[in-house]
Amino acid sequence: MDLLSKENVDSALFTFLKSIYLFEQRERELFGVSWKEVYLMQLLKREGKLSVTQISKKLKIEDFQASRTISKLFLGNFVSREKVKGDNRLVLVGITERGLKKIEMIEQFNYEMVVSQLNDYPNSEKQILLEMIENLDKILGLKA
């Protein structure tokens, strides 16, 4: 049997799609934020303050979509906006303490979920799984 047959790859990708879809739905239900919002807060946590243009490029969305997402997070006090002195058109977006707490809560929940599900797997399989997740963008042919 060819492990990389079209049928096997299609089946695995559909299972992956279903899992990711359900994972996002669970996060939305439990934490009240979309993946776009989570990803944006994660970016701000890791990279610091970013302009709307930088955010839209990193999220690969239009500026107006980035602005809408930022506004929603701003209203929830998850991000801050500050104008740059000398250029009133430039606004930097940063993550707030409340945003950091939200991200930490999501990360902790997901960590505990993954660890509890992987406890019975041997370490060699855990290592392979973590490497596959870390390289998923390459496997799927996505650009960072």
Overview of this protein structure:
It contains seven helices and three strands, in the order H-H-E-H-H-E-E-H-H-H. It is mainly alpha-helical and 144 residues long. The protein has a single domain, classed as Winged helix-like DNA-binding domain superfamily/Winged helix DNA-binding domain (Arc Repressor Mutant, subunit A), CATH 1.10.10. The chain has a three-stranded antiparallel sheet with strand order 1-3-2. The longest helix has 26 residues. The model has no long low-confidence stretch (mean pLDDT 93).
What strand order characterises the main sheet?
1-3-2
Architecture (CATH level 2) name = Orthogonal Bundle
CATH homologous superfamily descriptor: Winged helix-like DNA-binding domain superfamily/Winged helix DNA-binding domain
- Uncertain runs are none
CATH topology: Arc Repressor Mutant, subunit A
Radius of gyration based on Cα positions:
18 Å
One letter per element, helices H and strands E, the order comes to: HHEHHEEHHH
What can be said about the biggest beta sheet?
A: 3 strands, antiparallel
Give the mean pLDDT. Answer: 93
Which CATH class is shown? Mainly Alpha
Question: What level of helicity do the residues show?
Answer: 55-70%
Query: First CA to last CA: what distance?
Result: 33 Å
Number of H/I helices? 7
Structural class: mainly alpha
Beta-sheet strand percentage? 5-15%
Q: Tell how many strands the DSSP assignment holds.
A: 3
